[in-house]
Amino acid sequence: MKPTVQCWAVVPAAGVGKRMQADRPKQYLPLAGKTVIEHTLTRLLESGAFQKVAVAISVEDPYWPELSISKHSDVITAPGGKERADSVLSALKALKDLASEDDWVLVHDAARPCLTTADIHLQIETLKNDGVGGILALSSHDTLKHVDDDTITATIDRKHVWRALTPQMFKYGMLRDALQQTEGNPAVTDEASALELLGYKPKIVEGRPDNIKITRPEDLALAQFYMEQQA
Ligand code: C5P
């Protein structure tokens, strides 16, 4: 299903994933018969929501050219950068002759292979008339503590705390400008934080808890379990 607004996907995939302690970046680890990144890209492509998918890949990455999906006609490869934000900016630049300033861009981590078509369309339908955009997020079911040196200093009111997931959906021109203006700022850990630093107020859309990010070795088994449940 094509949304009524024009959307592009950007996938930062130039990280090394040190916490996985694996012999290759985590997006190339095997999961249910494919690599993690093949699942992620297949889900974005099969959602039907996007004009193209721009993927930021490290220039020294020997694994990407080996995957047939790297040659898919709707996949564009851009050089990755030092930080995630640099990789996203690079992928946005690769779309500059294709995307219009007011088109929507959904930035999605390569390491989140369980994203559903339902969440993609929910996000686009919820935010497509918004002036800024927003992110998929999850509320916390646990009580949250503020801690200094192993000691609890406060209990945080959890109705004000959400976990930021991806996709993160913003206007092409606004996101590019925000990432350029905040370049090198260590507070920019996701796309929303770049816009927040400039005074914008992104929205949240409640996402599904199975949209996990592969970070540690045990996450692969969890992702496989979620995929079986989704099927
Ligand atoms: O390391 P982390 O899990 O936070 O990375 C999130 C996403 O950002 C991953 O898909 C990773 O490949 C990507 N990334 C990137 N360029 C970097 C660092 C991370 O594209 N320099």
Automatic annotation (TrEMBL):
It comes from the Bacteria. The record marks 158, 213 as: Positions MEP for the nucleophilic attack. The record marks 19, 26 as: Transition state stabilizer. CDD domains: CDP-ME_synthetase. Its EC number is 2.7.7.60. Signal peptide: none annotated. PROSITE patterns: ISPD (PS01295). SUPFAM superfamilies: Nucleotide-diphospho-sugar transferases. Belongs to the IspD/TarI cytidylyltransferase family. IspD subfamily. It comes from Methylomonas rapida. It catalyses: 2-C-methyl-D-erythritol 4-phosphate + CTP + H(+) = 4-CDP-2-C-methyl-D-erythritol + diphosphate. This is 2-C-methyl-D-erythritol 4-phosphate cytidylyltransferase. Pathway: Isoprenoid biosynthesis; isopentenyl diphosphate biosynthesis via DXP pathway; isopentenyl diphosphate from 1-deoxy-D-xylulose 5-phosphate: step 2/6. Gene3D superfamilies: Spore Coat Polysaccharide Biosynthesis Protein SpsA, Chain A. GO terms for molecular function: 2-C-methyl-D-erythritol 4-phosphate cytidylyltransferase activity. Catalyzes the formation of 4-diphosphocytidyl-2-C-methyl-D-erythritol from CTP and 2-C-methyl-D-erythritol 4-phosphate (MEP). Keywords: Isoprene biosynthesis, Nucleotidyltransferase, Transferase. The keyword Acetylation does not apply.
